[in-house]
Inverse folding.
């Protein structure tokens, strides 16, 4: 009589190989690349993994792998290496479909969207015209030099978080902080 092997969900997810699990992990790595996951990124991730479920023996596995990867990210480099290894075994049409599935998430991946898109395409072994994909280029907010010490710190940290701080400061009537930030 054959012995029944019982594995935990974590073990099953770790053992999952092939393009679908690798793509699920890579999508999660893109979504969590900057340390936060926006609502847009999360929505695109869930949509993509749900579509990936259509190509999997277990339709819930891509979502489970991606959500676990969000909680414990392996990083974009590692996940793209895994994706490249898995993609080598697939035909170009399948690799292109995988890229098309990832594109909505790549488009909302912030200032790194174009770079992420190119790296994703390279991992999948396909050529893309970045200009034809409607992926936004990096945007940097230019601020004039400040005289206060806080202004100098702000000048070095040009990112979306500072714009959020500015909005909150203005909304709560902190005029001094709002002037220093923006």
């Amino acid at each position: 009589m054959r012995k029944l092997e019982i594995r935990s969900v974590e073990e099953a997810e770790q053992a999952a190989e092939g393009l679908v699990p690798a793509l699920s992990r890579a999508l999660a790595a893109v979504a969590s690349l900057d340390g936060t996951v926006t609502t847009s990124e999360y929505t695109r991730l869930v949509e993509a993994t749900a579509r990936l479920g259509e190509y999997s023996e277990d339709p819930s596995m891509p979502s489970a792998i991606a959500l676990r990867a969000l909680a414990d990210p392996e990083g974009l480099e590692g996940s793209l290496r895994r994706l490249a290894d898995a993609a080598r075994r697939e035909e170009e049409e399948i690799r292109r479909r995988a890229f098309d599935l990832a594109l909505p998430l790549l488009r909302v991946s912030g200032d790194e969207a174009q770079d992420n898109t190119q790296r994703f395409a390279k991992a999948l072994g396909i050529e893309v015209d970045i200009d034809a994909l409607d992926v936004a280029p990096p945007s940097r907010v230019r601020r004039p030099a400040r005289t206060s010490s806080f202004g100098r710190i702000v000048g070095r940290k040009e990112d979306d978080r500072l714009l959020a701080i500015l909005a909150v400061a203005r909304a709560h009537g902190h005029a001094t902080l709002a002037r220093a930030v923006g």
